[in-house]
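Posting here for the record, re: DLZ.
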Amino acid sequence: MASKGYQAPEKVSASELRIGIVCSQWNEAITSKLLEGARTTLENAGGTILPEHIIQVPGSFELPMGARILLGRDKFDAIVCLGCLIKGDTEHDTYIAQAVAQGLTMLSLQSNTPCLFGVITALTMDQAIARAGGEHGNKGSEAVSSAIQMALLKKTQPKSKPTIGFKSPLGD
Ligand code: DLZ
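Prediction output follows.
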């Protein structure tokens, strides 16, 4: 079955974009597929990922901090965060997923740089496999498509002073 998820607009070019990737090592068999999908999608759009623009973090919980580290290193148009949370016997996965979603939302708004949630939240390993290049697409690839769209959206806005009082801690 084809993925019913987000369909990227056609003919976007990422050739002028600097996209960073943060990849979690937990469930590495899955996150490596997300990374592969992310790279392929970016390259198909004319972009490249330099080795120094990819960092590994231990688990999904560390993704927002990893994104923060990348943003402190260089100027990026977007950061794509890749992880895979699989439900265990407890609510652990829910707390981590919420923390990551909130962390990335906060970081995006504070840094004025889109930080994308390319995290699979699955009940089983089979569900994760289906979302990492299987029948439900590749969430890494989808996150990169969203990153390109958001980065281009931001680039094409007229420069204006912030009107709602935010001042970026990252000097953007
Ligand atoms: C501890 C933990 C568990 C149980 N499960 C996952 C998981 O399914 N996916 C994932 O990305 N990370 C998991 N982690 C690790 C946490 O994300 C985090 O690295 C640790 O709690 C240390 O902060």
